[in-house]
């Protein structure tokens, strides 16, 4: 049959007739499985002190990467797999509250 | 008697038909296409008017305004938006049709590829017309030939009847799960779009039944199953997606024949990929597509009466290209002319010539010499005498006359540009035939 | 405690998952999240080619938790009008369930002000029941910061560079896309900013509730193209509002309202200075250019104040909430 098949490394990727037509993806939200945390690299990591947090949700609504995990409408943690360390959250946390601080990423090894 | 009454009188019940609601009616090509669309009643018709296919959109609008179609018309502001809205609607799970021509098709170009790459079975009628410049409103296959690699199935209709039949079959073919590709149904501008013919129009129920309901894949409108359409493909996937498209196109060959045969069984007019005429014992033949095939067939009839063994081969589809059927018909002939109603500046001959010649390469030892006759550009009239003259040239070619030009424009005033006269690669079939001493 | 709006939003499913490859500090995804979480109905999104599209949808993955379609650069308006027409057609024939679905398009300024203008204009004129959101970052950022008709006067881009001979960067003023949208006579037009999320979510909600076409022009600070700190994205978004470079207003059924009155109108220099794309102005000490930019802003702001007339809120700060 095809002369292509035997020598082409599949690298675990599907062959053409296993793909749905048209390049459609039914795997909604699937980038959530990707790790973008390495973008923080030489940058900074936000840490949230939930004891200081007043649950105003400003960080949550301002995060470009949807990193603030809510449970029952309350921020519970930060998803560091998606956080790129932009630091917006620390700026948006109300000055009187200051529950989010940015720490040099390299301190975490 | 008013004009309308007259045409109503022509709505004769066909006495031979077992089906009560089948009618013989006088319709122009545009009107026939619009009536086929009325009977199929697609969900959405995004359209933008352009001569010579404007009447299709107008008639569909009229049907909708009079409650004869449920279709939603989206009267967009350009052809680019017409095809864009078609893609959106089809991705939303709707059955979609539209019509355009010439510059309109050119303006859709970008989105034509998106429709086919996304496997959206949109049906598009083309009233074939020359591309500017110079601006020209008349029949010419330049625009649809230019889009032959856009991934659409392409039908070229010979008659108003066939344009009507092709539209109905196009939905079945494009929507077939083995194919899932958009379909263009071409009909020559003015020669078919504006010419009225007696056609047999099937009953509405018959058409609805033939076409069947549409089941879209991956609809955007199911909130419980969100899908993403039109993602950006990395190099590691693009080729696989192109092969998916190719597979649909390859499958279309058998689906077109299946659907054409079923159409024939149900309605008495069968269709295939090609339409051979007097080819069984032909010695020379003309390959042609579109409405002028009728003229060539007429000349064949006359010449046959005079004892000449001539034939005609009409290509009904250009994509998928019916190479196998063409080769089968051509092998054993003494000389063949490919008549193109389009041309490709700087290429070796017009599109169909290039492709037919390429299809014959594997059979080069037994292939006949072939020449290209470019005719009818921008609506230039083709006369019976021109066709007879081409057959005469084929006779000369069959006799080994190496002075017969390979590529020529029919009816051109003055000699062809020198490059064309000189353009005779050493190993043309004529040269090969001359060497063999034929 | 979060306010009512955020409480509402926090109950909505996350429309745009993380793990996408937009730059750190990009405002486009903030805008998307704030807009979509302003409605509880399911939405279908159309996306013009651009940063947002290419960074959220690389096959076989997608960041979108809602149905999403990208067609091409120039046609988000037409594409979404097609989807919306399919919705009406299929509902009319009972082929899909009777369920409210909202339609929203996102396009950058390239896909809105420039190449996509015709398609958007047609869609607005036809009155499709959809919301078009322009995330306006003021240049073609996806292809590496080329000028668009939304690029402000004096901004350096790769195709309007501040050089030694031509020193000012872009020498033309930006197009007023919001006014163009208004000229279509559509029922809802607004200008907003993700820096004032309450304003944006309120306007998104109104836009979704509007029957017919709605247009939201939203300023989208871009750390890459503006040469700014990612952390300052929303600070700059607010600064644009507080300097009146990007006033917040809405026009609902023809009725104009300023939705935000700065406590103190800041000088435009405060907006220009933090941005690397205006650096040459200060390097060249081009006070004339700063004055011109300030004069433009003052004139446009005064026009809005005149238009608001007696309806100017007498309290400063965000109004309507």
CATH domain class name of the largest domain in chain B: Alpha Beta
Please tally the β strands of chain B and state the result. 17
Unreliably modeled segments of chain B: 1-19
**What is the CATH topology classification name of the largest domain in chain B?**
Rossmann fold
* Succession of helices and strands of chain C: HHEHEHEHHEHEHEHHEEEHHHE
**Uncertain stretches of 5 or more adjacent residues of chain C:** none
Largest sheet of chain C: 8 strands, mixed
Largest sheet: spatial strand order of chain C: 2-1-3-4-6-5-7-8
Which strand order do you get reading across the main beta sheet of chain B?
11-13-12-15-16-17
Evaluate the radius of gyration of chain C.
Answer: 19 Å
Question: Any overview of this molecule?
Answer:
Chain A contains two helices and four strands. Chain A has 109 residues and is mainly beta. Chain A has a single domain, classed as 2-Layer Sandwich (Alpha-Beta Plaits), CATH 3.30.70. A two-stranded antiparallel ribbon of chain A has the order 1-4. Chain A has a two-stranded antiparallel sheet with strand order 2-3. In chain A, a hairpin with a 2-residue loop joins strand 2 (68-71) and strand 3 (74-78). Chain A starts with 43 loop residues before the first strand and ends in a 5-residue tail after the last strand. Chain B is an alpha/beta fold. Chain B has two domains: 10-267, Rossmann fold; 274-435, Rossmann fold (3-Layer(aba) Sandwich). Chain B has 15 helices and 17 strands. Chain C has one domain (4-311): Thiamin diphosphate (ThDP)-binding fold, Pyr/PP domains (Rossmann fold, 3-Layer(aba) Sandwich), CATH 3.40.50. Chain C has helices at residues 4-10, 28-36, 51-56, 76-92, 109-114, 117-126, 177-182, 197-209, 223-226, 233-242, 269-272, 279-283, 287-308, and strands at residues 43-47, 67-70, 102-108, 131-136, 188-192, 214-219, 249-252, 255-258, 260-261, 317-318. In chain C, the strands form two sheets. An eight-stranded mixed sheet of chain C has the order 2-1-3-4-6-5-7-8, with helices on both faces. A two-stranded antiparallel sheet of chain C has the order 9-10. In chain C, strand 7 and strand 8 (255-258) form a beta hairpin. Chains in contact: A-B, A-C, B-C. Chains B and C meet through strand 4, helix 4, helix 5 and strand 10 of B and strand 2, helix 4 and helix 6 of C. Strand 10 (228-229) of chain B pairs parallel with strand 2 of chain C, so a sheet runs across the interface.
């Amino acid at each position: 049959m095809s002369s292509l098949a035997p020598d082409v490394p599949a690298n675990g990727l599907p062959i053409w007739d296993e793909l749905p037509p048209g390049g459609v993806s039914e795997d909604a939200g699937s980038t959530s499985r990707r790790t973008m945390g390495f973008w923080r690299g030489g940058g900074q990591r936000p840490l949230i002190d939930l004891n200081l947090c007043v649950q105003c949700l400003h960080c949550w609504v301002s995060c470009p990467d949807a990193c603030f995990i809510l449970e029952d409408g309350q921020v519970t943690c930060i998803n560091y797999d998606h956080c790129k360390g932009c630091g917006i959250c620390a700026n948006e946390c109300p000055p009187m509250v200051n529950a989010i601080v940015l720490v040099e990423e390299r301190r975490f090894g | 008697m008013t004009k309308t009454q007259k045409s109503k009188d022509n709505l004769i019940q066909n006495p031979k038909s077992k089906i009560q609601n089948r009618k013989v009616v006088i319709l122009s090509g545009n009107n026939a296409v619009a009536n086929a669309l009325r009977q199929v009643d697609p969900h959405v018709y995004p359209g933008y008017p352009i001569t010579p296919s404007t009447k299709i959109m107008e008639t569909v609008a009229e049907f909708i305004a009079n409650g004869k179609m449920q279709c939603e018309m989206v009267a967009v502001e350009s052809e680019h938006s017409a095809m864009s809205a078609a893609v959106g609607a089809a991705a939303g799970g709707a059955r979609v049709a539209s019509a355009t021509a010439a510059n309109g098709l050119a303006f859709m170009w970008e989105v034509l590829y998106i429709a086919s790459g996304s496997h959206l079975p949109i049906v598009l009628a083309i009233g074939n017309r020359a591309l500017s410049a110079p601006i020209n409103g008349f029949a010419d296959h330049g625009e649809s030939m230019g889009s032959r690699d856009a991934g659409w199935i392409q039908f070229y209709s010979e008659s108003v009847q066939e344009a009507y039949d092709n539209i109905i079959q196009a939905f079945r073919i494009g929507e077939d799960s083995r194919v899932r590709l958009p379909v263009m149904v071409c009909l020559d501008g003015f020669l078919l779009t504006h010419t009225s013919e007696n056609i047999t129009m099937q009953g509405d129920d018959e058409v609805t039944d033939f076409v069947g309901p549409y089941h879209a894949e991956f609809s955007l409108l199911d909130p419980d199953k969100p899908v993403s359409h039109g993602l950006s493909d990395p190099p590691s996937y693009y080729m696989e997606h192109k092969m998916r498209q190719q597979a649909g196109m390859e499958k279309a060959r058998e689906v077109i024949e299946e659907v054409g045969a079923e159409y024939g069984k149900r309605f008495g007019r069968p269709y295939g990929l090609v339409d051979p005429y007097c080819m069984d014992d032909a010695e020379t033949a003309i390959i042609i597509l579109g409405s002028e095939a009728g003229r060539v067939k007429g000349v064949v009839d006359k010449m046959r009466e005079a004892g000449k063994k001539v034939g005609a081969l009409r290509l009904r589809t250009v994509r998928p290209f019916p190479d196998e059927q063409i080769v089968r018909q051509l092998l054993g002939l003494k000389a063949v002319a490919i008549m193109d109603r389009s041309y490709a500046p700087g290429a070796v001959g017009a599109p169909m010539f290039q492709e037919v010649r390429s299809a014959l390469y594997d059979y080069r030892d037994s292939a006949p010499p072939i020449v290209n006759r470019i005719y009818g550009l921008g609506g230039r009239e083709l006369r019976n005498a021109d066709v007879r003259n081409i057959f005469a040239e084929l006779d000369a070619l069959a006799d080994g006359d190496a002075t017969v030009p390979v590529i020529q424009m029919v009816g051109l005033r003055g000699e062809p540009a020198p490059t064309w006269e000189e353009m005779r690669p050493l190993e043309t079939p004529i040269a090969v035939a001359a060497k063999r001493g034929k | 405690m979060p306010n009512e709006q955020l409480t509402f939003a926090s109950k909505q499913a996350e429309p745009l998952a993380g793990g996408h490859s937009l730059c750190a500090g990009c405002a486009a995804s903030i805008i998307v999240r704030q807009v979509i979480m302003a409605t509880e109905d399911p939405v279908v999104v159309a996306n013009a080619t651009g940063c947002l599209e290419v960074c959220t949808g690389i096959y076989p993955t997608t960041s979108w938790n809602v149905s999403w379609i990208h067609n091409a650069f120039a046609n988000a308006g037409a594409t979404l009008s097609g989807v919306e027409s399919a919705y009406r057609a299929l509902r009319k024939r009972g082929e899909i369930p009777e369920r409210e679905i909202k339609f929203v398009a996102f396009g950058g300024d390239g896909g809105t002000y420039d190449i996509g203008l015709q398609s958007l204009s047609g869609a607005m004129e036809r009155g499709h029941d959809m919301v078009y959101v322009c995330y306006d970052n003021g240049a073609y950022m996806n292809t590496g910061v080329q000028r668009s008709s939304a690029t402000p006067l004096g901004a350096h881009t790769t195709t309007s560079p501040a050089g030694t001979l031509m020193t000012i960067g872009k020498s033309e003023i930006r197009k007023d896309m919001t006014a163009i949208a208004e000229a279509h006579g559509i029922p809802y037009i607004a200008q907003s900013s993700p820096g004032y999320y309450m304003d944006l979510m309120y306007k998104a909600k109104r836009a979704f509730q509007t029957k017919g076409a709605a247009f939201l022009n939203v300023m989208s600070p871009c750390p890459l193209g503006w040469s700014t700190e990612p952390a300052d994205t929303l600070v700059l978004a607010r600064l644009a509002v507080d300097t009146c470079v990007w006033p917040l207003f809405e026009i609902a059924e023809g009725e104009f309202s300023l939705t935000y009155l700065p406590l103190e109108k800041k000088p435009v220099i405060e907006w220009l200075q933090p941005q690397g794309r205006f650096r040459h102005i200060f390097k060249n000490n081009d006070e004339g250019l700063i004055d011109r930019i300030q004069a433009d802003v003052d004139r446009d702001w005064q026009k809005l104040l005149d238009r608001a007339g007696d309806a100017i809120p007498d309290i400063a700060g965000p109004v309507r909430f």
